[in-house]
């Protein structure tokens, strides 16, 4: 409903014009009062008056115009508010981005400074190491463990077992080995040891050539290092294999004149006469099982003689290494020995021969389950 003030403003436009000849005119207040007093009560009909007299009302087009103007005013205010909000938001985002860029610049400068310090320290360490080794070269203790024992026996009453540095004759490198000085007279250079299954023997060719593991525990010395020791002039070496079963039964197999061929032939093994209590698993029971003179094989270098496959127990085998848990050994159509096999697994099918294997060592016709083994070499007397 329109207010009285609005009606007063609109009355001059709404009232019909009067003749100039009239003696007087009504005031707006009088007209309003008269209209208000004569307005019919809501719900009542006019009781009298001149027929056809028009009541005072606001035309619809004026109402629409007023509403439209008010709407335009509100929309204009809203647009101004949105523009102001957008400007403040963009400024806030710009300020945040500038602050982040400043923080990143600070962090970048700090990282650069730290990298410079690390490079400086690394250079100092390398220079110190170079100076240390140039001034104090590492001295070897002997050509092999047998030579170390012979050299120390005259000055030391008891030589302890442990890690020593050897430099085989006619080689240009020194390396560490574990010497057993208490077992069967001492002087043994350990080339392989399995005790607790901690070291994984599932290795590639390069690892078997260079060696891996912990010398004080499970390890494989490396074909190249063993070959350097065995290739010394005027020397002969024996191989000793010490075995212990799960029920703590001990046994051994020994070979004299143990040799390895060179790397170009894949380090083939050469064994002399056998002696021991565990049986000659290297040579097996017949020629088809003989691993003597076989080259070394690994999962990625296959020299096992199964070309394209061989048959074991009526089943075809393409790779002896794959059959033996991807370990390396001197396989010859697989054979009966693999001291690098996986540690004993009671859930594994024994017919698959994936564990440490020395098939000729048996109890009641069944091969012993082997929990530990050590392969070691020692010099033997020569005619020279």
UniProtKB/TrEMBL annotation:
Which BP terms in the Gene Ontology apply to this protein?
blood coagulation, common pathway; fibrinolysis; platelet aggregation; positive regulation of heterotypic cell-cell adhesion
- Name one molecular function that GO assigns to this entry: extracellular matrix structural constituent
Q: Where is the Fibrinogen C-terminal domain?
A: 136-381
Which UniProt keywords are present, listed alphabetically? Coiled coil, Disulfide bond, Glycoprotein, Secreted, Signal
GO terms for CC?
fibrinogen complex
What is its subcellular localisation?
Secreted
Q: Which Gene3D superfamilies has this protein been placed in? A: Gamma Fibrinogen, chain A, domain 1, Gamma-fibrinogen Carboxyl Terminal Fragment, domain 2
Q: Name one Pfam family in it.
A: Fibrinogen_C
Q: Which domain of life is it from?
A: Eukaryota
Signal peptide (residue range): 1-20
The answer to keyword Coiled coil applying to this record is yes
Coiled coil ranges (UniProt) are: 97-131
Stored PANTHER family: FIBRINOGEN ALPHA CHAIN, FIBRINOGEN C-TERMINAL DOMAIN-CONTAINING PROTEIN
Matching NCBIfam families: GGGWT_bact
Q: Which protein is depicted?
A: Angiopoietin-related protein 5
Q: Which organism encodes this protein?
A: Liparis tanakae (Tanaka's snailfish)
The organism's taxonomy opens as: Eukaryota, Metazoa, Chordata, Craniata, Vertebrata
Q: Which gene encodes it?
A: ANGPTL5
């Amino acid at each position: 409903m329109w207010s009285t003030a609005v009606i007063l403003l609109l009355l001059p436009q709404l009232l019909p014009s009067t003749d100039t000849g009239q003696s007087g005119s009504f005031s707006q207040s009088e007209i309003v009062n008269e209209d208000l007093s004569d307005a019919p009560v809501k719900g009542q009909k006019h009781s009298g008056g001149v027929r056809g007299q028009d009541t005072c009302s606001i035309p619809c087009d004026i109402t629409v115009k007023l509403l439209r103007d008010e709407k335009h005013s509100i929309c204009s205010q809203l647009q101004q508010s949105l523009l102001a909000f957008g400007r403040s938001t963009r400024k806030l985002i710009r300020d945040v981005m500038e602050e982040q860029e400043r923080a990143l610049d600070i962090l970048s400068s700090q990282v650069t400074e730290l990298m410079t310090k690390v490079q400086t320290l690394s250079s100092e360490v390398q220079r110190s190491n170079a100076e240390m080794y140039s001034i104090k070269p590492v001295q070897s203790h002997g050509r092999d463990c047998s030579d170390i024992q012979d050299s120390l026996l005259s000055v030391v009453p008891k030589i302890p077992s442990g890690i020593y540095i050897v430099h085989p004759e006619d080689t240009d490198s020194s390396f560490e080995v574990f010497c057993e000085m208490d077992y069967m007279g001492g002087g043994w250079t350990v080339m392989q040891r399995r005790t607790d299954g901690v070291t994984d023997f599932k290795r590639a060719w390069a690892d078997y050539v260079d060696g891996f593991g912990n010398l004080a525990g499970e390890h494989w010395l490396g074909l190249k290092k063993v070959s350097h020791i065995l290739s010394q002039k005027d020397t002969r070496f024996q191989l000793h294999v010490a075995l212990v079963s799960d029920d703590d039964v001990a046994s051994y197999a020994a070979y004299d004149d143990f040799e390895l061929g060179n790397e170009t032939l894949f380090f083939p093994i050469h064994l002399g006469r056998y002696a021991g209590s565990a049986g000659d698993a290297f040579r097996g029971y017949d020629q088809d099982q003989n691993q003597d003179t076989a080259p070394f094989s690994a999962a990625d270098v296959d020299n096992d003689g199964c070309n394209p496959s061989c048959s074991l127990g009526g089943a075809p085998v393409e790779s002896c290494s794959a059959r033996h848990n991807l370990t390396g050994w001197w396989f010859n159509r697989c054979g009966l020995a693999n001291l690098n096999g996986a540690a004993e697994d009671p859930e594994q099918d024994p017919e698959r021969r994936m564990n440490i294997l020395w098939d000729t060592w048996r109890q009641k016709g069944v091969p012993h389950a082997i929990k530990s083994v050590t392969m070691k070499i020692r010099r033997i007397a020569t005619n020279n």
